[in-house]
Amino acid sequence: MIYDSSNSCKYMIFVDEAGDHNLEKWDKHFPVFVLACCIIEKSHYCDFVLPSVNKLKLKYFNRTDVILHEHDIHKQTGCFSCLVDKITQDCFMTDINNLIANTQFTIISAIINKPKLIGKYKYPNNPYNIATKMCFERLSHFLVENHEKKPAVVTFEARGRKEDENLKESFAKYAQEEGFDINIIPKANNCVGLQFADLVARPIGRHFLNSDQPNRAFDIIKNKFRTDSNGKFIGRGLKIFP
Predict the structure, then answer these.
(1) What backbone torsions phi and psi does residue 106 show, to the nearest 5 degrees?
(2) Closest Cα partner for 134 from 208, 35, 219?
């Protein structure tokens, strides 16, 4: 069988989360679960994103196998210990911010407010299931809006056997009817698209929790959300529940 690229969706979709879906206990400083989907055209991903990220990694780490992880960058751990130097940190964050600003991608995200969820429902659904349903409904609409009706591949990062099985179970409820295929890969694969999703997830949650505080990361990505005809992203590119 000869492969026909015309039957392939032109978009790549990468998903990561911030926070956890535990409803029994949670971080009081981050009592939300955030699922963030980054949609990038394949041509832009290959021609701009991959070489730009590798160039940045070579500049600061002299290697390309470094995995950009928001938590490690913030805590300045591992390879990012070089960021304890203020000048290096400022330069690195400027380059990261410019990279994200210059990358053409669309964000669809869901925020689950865990305290409100358990306060409203006696038997609340798993935040991961709720967020998945909300995001994939909007991803499906996005594909239709952009005349992409072929199956699209959505890539997640592997978490562990049990977690991955739960993810597949959650995803399977919507995959067939919405036209998606799932791809779960290990962090060690160094997937740049997943690193983008990781970098945007927590700033979305931080903005929701502390919208009055300066949030440079969110200021950069807020124009990346899927919007309505009036340029509003709440409800279209960002769903908050309940």
Answers:
(1) -115, 140
(2) 35
- CA dihedral over 135, 136, 140, 141, signed as positive or negative: negative
- Pairing label, strands 238-241, 106-113: parallel
Contacts of 78 (CB under 8 A, 6+ apart): 72
The pTM score is: 0.93
pLDDT 10s digits, 3-39: 445 568 999 999 999 998 889 888 999 999 999 999 9
| Joined tokens for residue 143 | 């594909």
Alpha helices in 67-191, H assignment, sequence order: 70-75, 86-102, 114-120, 127-145, 161-178
pLDDT 10s digits, 132-171: 889 999 999 999 999 997 789 999 888 767 766 766 676 6
